[in-house]
Write a structure and sequence with these properties.
2 copies of one chain form a homodimer. Chain A is an alpha+beta fold. Chain A has 4 helices and 6 strands, in the order ββααααββββ.
Chain lengths: 157, 157
């Protein structure tokens, strides 16, 4: 079973995101069965679904699909960083899977605000840029990306 | 039920990826139930899981999590573009969700090779850059990204 540890905050608005602030967003752990179940639908490459071929490959065992890792990381971002009932995200830059995520690894998510800018055309919202990192139990970064998040302003005036 | 249409090719190697070639990779369609089931685990934002709040929001109904869309797009990439038993992907650049994906939309995937370069340090492989687009039944691009794929060379010599 996929285990997700996270402690959702009260609601947030644009004014709450301070450049330089880091949010510790909880962690997740997957079993080999979780990895195979997801990858069988979304990413059926041998390294994610075939124990025999994976054992002979460069990682020596099944590793998680990067899309499952990022899906769970997104879950922690939704629970711990984004406002409730948020706005659609325009995109992601520089997504990198820097190390494999193996069965039993615990991946902790931290998000640092790098830029916060009010929209000129739509003054009820602002765009938050952040650096998003997944770190395993050994302190190694396994995942990094630079999301953009559109959030509501508390007091648009 | 999620419907995926795809016709996997025979195996491919680095030499097979020609710059400028476009691969039509099939399509997928999701029901509202598929969208809610995925988002309940990976991306439980109101616009993906709460019919009432979604109806009041900017899209007027439930829309798919961008991570589910990209997961299914990845499935079509695995089936129709990548080699069998491939190598780990280093990352993605410029991921953009340009329009919402709604229940019943049919999203077709096309991938165009933009760069193909042999590795200097590891001559048994090469790096393929591509432009990856998801297009709905109206011809609108709903998803675009620039993946990097590491693939084996057929004849390393």
């Amino acid at each position: 079973m996929i285990e997700v540890f996270s402690t959702p905050p009260t609601d947030r608005f644009f004014e709450d995101y301070k450049v330089g602030a880091t949010y510790e967003c909880g962690s997740f752990t997957m079993t080999e069965a979780d990895i195979i179940a997801f990858a069988s639908v979304y990413d059926p490459q041998a390294m994610h679904v075939d124990r025999k071929l994976a054992a002979e490959g460069p990682f020596g065992e099944i590793i998680a699909s990067g899309w499952q890792t990022i899906g769970l990381a997104m879950r922690l971002m939704v629970d711990n960083f984004l406002p409730h009932n948020g706005l659609a995200a325009p995109g992601i830059d520089e997504l990198r899977w820097t190390r494999p995520v193996r069965p039993g690894d615990t991946v902790s998510i931290r998000i640092t605000v790098t830029e916060a800018r009010r929209s000129r055309s739509k003054p009820d919202r602002g765009l938050i840029h952040s650096l998003f990192e997944g770190v395993n139990q050994n302190g190694d970064v396994v995942l990094s990306l630079k999301p953009m998040s559109m959030v509501r302003v508390r007091n648009p005036e």
